[in-house]
Amino acid sequence: MYVSLLIEGFNMLFCGIVGYLVVRLGMIKVEILRQLNSIVFKVGVCALSINLIAPFKFSEIDWYWCIVYAIFEMVLHAFVISIGWVFHQRDLLKISTNILTLTWSNLVIFGIPIMDSIFPKSFLIYPILASVPLILFQIPLMIVMCETIESKREIKRKMEADIENNRSSGSESQDKKDKKSTDTNIGNTSFQNNQENISENEKSLVENGQEAFELEEVDENNDRIDNENGEGKDTDSNSDSHIDSDSDIHIEGGSSSDNGITNRTQSKYSRQNDTKYELSNHKKRIIIFTIKRVFMNPIFISVVIGFIYSSSGLPYPKVIAKPAQTLANLVLPLAMITIGMFVYQHKIISSGMKTMIIYVSIKSFLVPIVSLSTFILFGIKGDSGKAAFILSVMPAGIITFQFGTEYSLRNDIITTCLIVESLIMIPILIMWILIIDATGLF
């Protein structure tokens, strides 16, 4: 068993180095290799699942074992999702399926040499069957929850932007009002100054006129006084009309202000309605996207095909089994080559040291504890319990990198966890095997 661990670890390291050198030396374009890897991944996963399920009959499957393993997967996934939901960690929600669950993807490829040396290969069928409820229920739940968090954040950002726009528009209108009032005050001040200058000039003219024309008749003085009184009346009427026009302007300004408030209120409600409409359409797109992803998933398709062939009762020919196994065996090296390409383009610990420690600790210690408690609680003992526990202790599947690519997840975190978990896999796995052997739990 330990020799098999060392051999598989060396093979993974070799494939990763090959991928790194291929990109560094420019031997092949990255996009071509990535597309080829994606095609082989889908075909290889289908071939591998069919190759394991098709030879079995329903009567030979231990459904209780399968149900318990599915419960373990779902409990673990629900626990991690609840942590991500409470703390609003969208990245944890997005990659929890890849990092913590879907363990079958690594076990049926990376674990075959180890399982063959300890247990029958038939144990590998149960993680595959257990992954079906995970695909049908928990992956859609994960996607919807992630997108719901993102939608709420987007709505919050839009509302904050609307509030900021309203504040800026309000400040601009207030500045305009202040500027208008300032201009009005300046105009009134200049008008008063002009009136004072005019009155002083008139006073000087009157004094000079009295000195020059003191011999004029009283009638002319009376006529002048009458004329001045007439001009005063005209001035009063003009001032009254000026006041009326000012009041009209003030009234018109008030109505325009009311209209501005109404328009802003209407625009606010229209923006809220637009946001709700966008959220509704976004949820519809999420549902359609999730349904397509679930039913076009290679795991789901391969399990359905395998069950159909198994229920037919036909023997599984070796002509199909050997090519299918060959395709399945290509998934691991190509996945490691892709990881090597990713490492060349990014840092090995690109997600940060803190994030790496958290996720690796969860996978290396939390997952085994949950699996051990689940299998003991449901009475899974003997080889079945030990096999299930070893499957859960193994590092996250190399194939999860491909799932991260397909679902546009955080491949930086996934790659970091895969590399570190693979490096510490041997001591961690040996430690847990020694613990269960010493305690006799199974």
From TrEMBL:
Subcellular location: Membrane
Chain segments annotated as transmembrane: 6-27, 39-56, 62-87, 99-119, 125-149, 294-314, 326-344, 356-380, 386-404, 416-436
Protein family (similarity comment): Belongs to the auxin efflux carrier (TC 2.A.69.1) family.
Higher taxonomy: Eukaryota, Metamonada, Anaeramoebidae, Anaeramoeba
Keywords: Membrane, Transmembrane, Transmembrane helix, Transport
Positions of region (Disordered): 160-275
Compositional bias per record (Basic and acidic residues), positions renumbered to this chain: 173-182, 221-251
One matching Pfam family: Mem_trans
Broad class of the protein's primary localization: membrane
Membrane topology classification: Multi-pass membrane protein
Species whose genome carries this gene: Anaeramoeba flamelloides
Any GO CC annotation of this UniProt entry: membrane
Keyword Transmembrane helix: yes
One of the GO biological process terms: transmembrane transport
Biased composition (Polar residues): 184-198, 259-270
Protein name (database record): Auxin efflux carrier component 1b-related
